[in-house]
Amino acid sequence: MTERFKRIHIIVLDSVGIGEATDAANYNDEGCDTLGHTAEAMNGLNVPNLTKLGLSNIRPERPIQGVPIQEKPLAYYTKMHEVSAGKDSMDGHWEMMGLPVRTPLHTFPNGFPDELVQKIESFSGRKVLWNKPASGTEIIKKFGERQMKTGELIVYTSGDSVLQIAAHEHVIPLEELYKICEYARKLTIDEPYHLGRVIARPYVGNSADTFERTANRRDLTLVPPEKTVLNFLNDAGLDTLAVGKINDIFSGKGIKEGWHTVSNEDGMERFTALLDRDFHGLSFTNLVDFDAKYGHRREPVLFGKALEAFDRQLGEALPKLKKDDLLMITADHGNDPGFRGTDHTREFVPLLVYSPSFSSVGAFPVRQTFADLGATVADNFAVEMPKTGESFLSFLN
Ligand SMILES: O=P(O)(O)O[C@H]1O[C@H](CO)[C@@H](O)[C@H]1O
Ligand SMILES: [Mn+2]
Ligand SMILES: [Mn+2]
Q1: For 388, which of 90, 167, 201, 336 is 20 to 30 Å away at the CA?
Q2: Keywords for this entry (predicted)?
Q3: b/e per residue, 139-164, with b = 16+ CB within 10 A?
C-alpha cells in the first residue's frame, strides 16, 4: 500500500504552551498559561490562520483572547501532555520522536562543582566567572564589559539542565568558544553531571547597553541513547530535513539535511521554500525566538507580536500544501511570559493537524505523550515504530 502522505511537516513553536499540565504543581508551575497570558497582554491576538485551523477550539472552556472558536475549523485539534521528566527543548523534541527522557537530567541551582570549573579553566586558560543561574541577557549586561577587559568565561545555568557559556565574539573567537563548549560537553555526559545541554552563547556590542546575542549560538545536546523516528526514517531512505535548532537537538542523528536559522522569520522562509522542493519524508522546523527572545525575557507583548508575525508567514505557506502533505503545528514546552521567574513552564502543548485532503476534521482525544506525533509519522511511512507513542493516522480523514 502506498503511504497516505508523501511529506509530513512538523513546525515546533518553541515554548508556545497552552496552559498548565496536570503535573504542573510538581514543577511549581501552577497557573502558567503561555498562550492565554500572551493573548491577554495583547488585548487579543490577531492570528487569523491559527484561528481558522482551530487554535481556540483546543480549549473551548477558556478560549484564547482574540481567537474565536470556529464552528468549522480546518484542522484536527487537541493538546498533548509530556511524559518526560524535564520541561526543556531536548525532552520535548526527543519525546516527539518517540524517545521520552524519563530519568531527570541534573540541574545545578548552586552552580557547577569546583572540579568541573577547574577543568574548564585549565583547558581554556581562562577564568570562570559567575557559575550560577542567570538570565542570559542580564548576565552579559552585568559582566560583558568586564569580560571585554579580562577575557574570563561567563558560565551560567538555569532551571533547566544546561551549562551556558556567554562570550563576546571579539574577545573569545567563535572557534575557541565552540572548542571550550565541546570540551565541557564531553565532561558532562555521564554521572555525576548527566547534563542535557552545553550552550555556546556568543554576543557582540561595545557596552552594557548595546550588547546583543548573535545567531551563532550552538546547542550541544546529549546524543540520543536510542534510535528515534528520525533514524527510522533515515534508515529507510526517506528524507529528514531539519530547520533551526533541530539538528543540534538530535546531535545530527537521523537527519539528512539541516539548516541553522537566524530568526523565526528566516525559519519560516526556509520551511516555505522546502514546500517547493519535491522531497519524500519529514520536514521538522523549530522556531526558537518565542522562547529565547521573548519567553525567558518575560516579554508578553513581544511574544504576542512574534505569534502574529508567524501567523502571517503561515498564511503564505498554507496555500502551497498539496493533498499529500500533512502539517502538524505544536510546541515543545511552555515559557509563560506572564509568569514569575525566567524558566520554562510545565504545560500542555497545542496540536493542530492539517492537510488540504481532509474531508472531515474535529477534536482529537488529548494525547498522553508527545510521542504520538512520531508514532504517526512512522506509521505513515511504514517504518519501524517507536517504543512509546500511539499513531493517530487512522483518525485522519
Ligand atoms: O536566559 P537564556 O540565556 O536565554 O537561557 C535560557 O535558554 C536555555 C535554553 O532554552 C534555558 O535553559 C534558559 O537558561
Ligand atoms: Mn524549547
Ligand atoms: Mn528556553
Answers
A1: 336
A2: Cytoplasm, Isomerase, Manganese, Metal-binding
A3: bbebbbbebeeeebbbbbbbbbbbbb
CA-angle at 256, arms to 383 and 182, nearest 5°: 120
Same structural domain for residues 187 and 159? Answer: yes
Reply yes or no: is the peptide bond before residue 300 cis, omega within 30 of 0: no
Number of domains composing the chain = 2
Q: Is 84 in the pocket of ligand 1 (CB under 6 A)?
A: no
Q: What is the ipTM of this complex?
A: 0.95
Q: CB count, 10 Å around CB of 327?
A: 24
- Backbone torsions φ then ψ of 48, nearest 5 degrees: -60, -30
Does any domain span residue 316? yes
1 confidence band (pLDDT: 50, 70, 90): low
Q: Could you read off the pLDDT of 95-147 as tens digits, one per residue?
A: 999 999 999 899 999 999 999 999 999 999 999 999 999 999 999 999 999 99
pLDDT of residue 231: 98
291 assigned to a ligand binding site: yes
Smallest CA-to-CA distance from 19 within 57, 53, 64 is with 64
Is residue 372 lining ligand 1, measured as CB closer than 6 Å?
no
Taking CA atoms only, the protein residue closest to ligand 1 atom 7 is 292
**Do residues 255 and 387 share a domain?**
yes
280 annotated among ligand-binding-site residues: no
In a domain, 352, yes or no: yes
Q: Give the H/E segment covering residue 153.
A: strand 153-157
Residue 75 covered by a domain: yes
Return the exposure string of 84-95: e unless at least 16 CB atoms fall within 10 Å of the residue's CB, then b. Answer: bebbbbbbbbbb
Q: Taking 90 as the threshold, does the pLDDT of residue 275 lie above it?
A: yes
Query: Which of 221, 246, 261 is the C-terminal boundary of a domain?
Result: 221
Give me the CATH number covering residue 132: 3.30.70.1250
pLDDT at residue number 2: 75
Indicate if ligand 1 lies below 6 Å from the C-beta of 158. Answer: yes
Please give the Cα distance from 232 to 151 (Å, whole number): 44
Ligand index nearest the alpha carbon of residue 201: 1
- Is 332 flagged in the annotation as binding? yes
The residue whose CB lies within 8 Å of the most ligand 1 atoms, and thus the one to mutate among 107, 108, 112, 160, is 160
Residue 292, ligand 1, Cβ within 6 A: yes
Please write down the HEC assignment for all residues of 367-390.
ECCCHHHHHHHHHHCCCCCCCCCC
- Note whether 44 and 307 are within 8 A (CB): no
Last residue of a domain, one of 221, 238, 270: 221
